[in-house]
Amino acid sequence: MNTSTNTVEQFLDCTPDNIPAQVLSSDAPVLLKGLVADWPLVQAGQQSTQAAADYIQQFDSGQPLTTYEGPPEIEGRIFYNKDFTGFNFARTQQSLAQVIEKLFAAQSDATPPTYYIGSTMVDHWLPGFRAKNDIDLGDRERLVSIWLGNRSRIAAHYDFPHNIACSVVGKRRVTLFPPEQLANLYVGPLELTPSGQPISLVDTCNPDLTRYPRYAEAQAASYTVELEAGDALFIPSMWWHHVEALESFNVLVNYWWRTTPVYQGSPLNALHHAIMSLRDLPLEQRRVWQNLFNHYVFEENAEAFEHIPEHVRGILDGVDESSARALRAQLVKFLK
Q1: How high is the mean pLDDT of the chain?
Q2: Nearest residue to 125 (alpha-carbon basis) of 145, 142, 108
């Protein structure tokens, strides 16, 4: 279990249509206590889990959902199989009604199978839901997803976009790690991942410090937040987070948004390309390229390119949608 005494800042008087700008631009997690407590889904869940399930199902589009199913022995931990040739769960396509029926059938089991629907686009699968269950993020382009299942443990991972995670039915425990703890989290493969993002191989609930000794440093730097139904948590871009759903029926709705336009692509793609192109160069050459990346990408120097006539600076003067499209086409051509 987590032993950190670090505490997350709380805001107690936020409303879905009035989230302070300082929260949305924070570089640390923020607990928004009771932010969505008045949502109809939250209110239905306060009556009963059946009322919450009935409320959700009235918006069901009828299209099958990707559902993770795992045997009782995984105890809700969505992870790899023992030899890392695959995973400890199966991906299936089921209707929302089928998943909810299985969840309620397993409620009385002491060691139930795991049922987990993750990152499912609300507007596509539950059209109309956001009419009365939503938060106002202004003109930010956001992706709204729903997560539903019974008790589960999602390994520590990061997301590139900022995130507001709203616990709407059940309870969640979130353990957060600052980005600089990367080396202490023992991150697994980049290609073979349970859901697309690299994950920590450490079991946050039962860490093996003999096998993963540096995790003790990550643990000391971590934050743990308990989310009741109606609470929300702002998770800044690139913060690692381990998420536990604690009851037999849990629902979370989250909002992702970027601070850069979507047309600029994902930095993870650049990382993959850098590993392919740069990592195996001799050390001295890598140091030269590190200096180039610092000059062109990472350092902030307003005068760095002033010696180039403005009309020929190209992407050095900024990337817009048109230049991003042209650059992407050029990259595709080079990579063939």
Answers
A1: 95
A2: 145
Identify the pLDDT of residue 77.
98
* Ranges of H-type helices in the chain: 21-24, 40-47, 49-57, 96-105, 122-125, 215-220, 267-277, 283-293, 321-335
Q: What percent of the chain has pLDDT over 70?
A: 99
Measured CA to CA, the distance from residue 254 to residue 47 in angstroms comes to 22
What is the CA angle 186-192-193, rounded to 5? 70
DSSP strands (E only) in 62-141: 65-70, 77-78, 90-94, 114-121
What's the gap between Cα 33 and its chain centre? 20
Bridge partners, residue 149, by sequence: 116, 250
For the entire predicted model, the pTM comes to: 0.94
Q: Are 44 and 260 in contact (CB under 8 A)?
A: no
Which amino acid is residue 283, in one-letter code? L
Residue 132 to residues 40, 41, 129, 143, 302, Cα–Cα distance (Å): 7, 9, 7, 17, 46
| C-alpha closest to that of 46 among 170, 150, 231 | 170
**pLDDT tens track for 48-76:** 999 999 999 999 999 999 999 999 999 99
Sign of CA dihedral 284, 286, 289, 294: negative
Q: Which residue has the tokens 């539950």?
A: 126
What distance in Å separates the CA atoms of residue 181 and residue 239, rounded to the nearest whole number?
Answer: 9
Mean pLDDT for the stretch of residues 103-113: 94
Provide the token pair at 204: 């946050």
